[in-house]
From TrEMBL:
Keywords tagged on the record: Membrane, Phosphoprotein, Transmembrane, Transmembrane helix
CDD domains reported for this sequence: CSP_CDS
GO biological process, one term: regulation of mRNA stability
Name of the molecule in the record: CSD domain-containing protein
One Gene Ontology molecular-function label: mRNA 3'-UTR binding
Organism this protein belongs to: Pseudoalteromonas haloplanktis (Alteromonas haloplanktis)
Transmembrane segments: 63-84, 96-115, 162-180
InterPro entries hit by this protein: Ca-reg_mRNA-binding_domain, CSD, CSD_CS, CSP_DNA-bd, DUF1294, NA-bd_OB-fold
Domain CSD: 1-65
Classification via SUPFAM superfamilies: Nucleic acid-binding proteins
């Protein structure tokens, strides 16, 4: 939904959002703001989801303050990895096929996140979290980080984020190992089979 912050208590970190048509007024907490490091203020335009809390009250969640993105450190990390991976493949005489593979998997993973978000909004069949983690593990994690930042999907769910970062570090470790002599031999034997 689209709306505007109509009340904000900066000391206590909570306030209220009213929908554009004025029919919905919901409570929100600072922890529901997805713009990292941003302190909201009255009259900020926002988009948000409405959900029931444990007591059955409606609250705003996944709040995005319009026009404020914050710095995308995770996206920068993913982009930096792709640049470093390209350089290391060149410097250490690795398999150049790994770079387009990372790009294709990243694009595919981004679209899987987008499809899952749309399915969540429409109440239709969802992509399992294990599928999204598997795509990240095999090399699509830069696309997953970009999707989390741009689409604000799976960006607040702590167990998902924790597992995603585990898959990222495992993938990076695997990539570094593929630059070793034993890793290169395995890649070449696999490619030689085709």
């Amino acid at each position: 939904m689209k709306g505007q912050i109509v009340e904000w208590n900066d000391t206590k970190g909570y306030g209220f959002i009213s929908s554009v048509d004025g029919k919905v007024r919901v409570f929100f907490h600072i922890s529901s703001i997805t713009n990292r490091g941003y302190r909201p203020k009255v009259k900020d335009s926002v988009t948000f989801d409405v959900a029931k809390d444990k007591k059955g009250r409606f609250n705003a969640e996944n709040i995005v303050v319009q026009g404020v993105n914050g710095f995308p450190y995770t996206v920068l990390f993913g982009f930096s990895f792709l640049v470093a991976a390209t350089a290391s493949v060149t410097v250490f005489n690795g398999e150049i096929l790994l770079i387009p593979l990372y790009l294709v998997l990243s694009i595919f993973t981004y679209f899987m996140f987008a499809w899952d978000k749309q399915a969540a909004q429409n109440g239709s069949w969802r992509t399992s979290e294990s599928t999204l983690h598997t795509l990240s593990l095999v090399g699509g994690w830069p696309g997953a980080l970009l999707a989390q930042f741009q689409l604000r999907h799976k960006s607040r769910k702590q167990p998902f984020k924790f597992i995603l970062w585990i898959t990222i570090f495992i993938n990076i470790g695997g990539f570094v190992w593929l630059l070793s002599e034993s890793g290169r031999r395995i890649v070449q034997s696999v490619l030689g089979a085709f």
